[in-house]
């Protein structure tokens, strides 16, 4: 059985995760970011694409207020061409890099080759099979827009945790989800809103697959 998949995203009001130059830290405020860490702590694994690694150099660890502790999830990077730098924060033990190329050494990260699509990127099916075999039952996707689009298009995103900041970044900003190539509204993936909650100046919106 595949993992339950949650897409967690922090955007502007107009659905952008960064400016046209790629600046994205921090769109949302401290309360929303803290809640993001709490969500991360409830998942077996968190996943990003290599573009997020190159742009933000994330740690993907759980960082909670003083006195609170939680285990870090497995960190997963989709990196078809193995562009993750050896000095990246994710190039360490506890990180799994999935690629379609012959594995090479990247710091202390584990590199695994999986099946690719026509463009040489890891297929969603191969990614989920690999994670399921490792006992991952819950996966949170944290970026970027192209990765989110792949999983949404595959119909496997079960829930969305959306943090929306009261700013506008415009059409040249980086979209939270890349092209879905939809010709008709009837083909659009549909979700049911569960809750909307203020988080400081931001909004936390929760959805599940309809």
UniProtKB/TrEMBL annotation:
Residues 3-177 form the Bacterial bifunctional deaminase-reductase C-terminal domain. Keywords: NADP, Oxidoreductase. This is Bifunctional deaminase-reductase domain protein. Pfam families: RibD_C. Pathway: Cofactor biosynthesis; riboflavin biosynthesis. The lineage of its organism: Bacteria, Pseudomonadati, Pseudomonadota, Alphaproteobacteria, Caulobacterales. InterPro entries: DHFR-like_dom_sf, RibD_C, RibDG_C, Riboflavin_Biosynth_HTPR. GO terms for molecular function: 5-amino-6-(5-phosphoribosylamino)uracil reductase activity; NADP binding. The keyword Flavoprotein does not apply. SUPFAM superfamilies: Dihydrofolate reductase-like. One of its GO terms (biological process) is riboflavin biosynthetic process. Gene3D superfamilies: Dihydrofolate Reductase, subunit A (3.40.430.10).
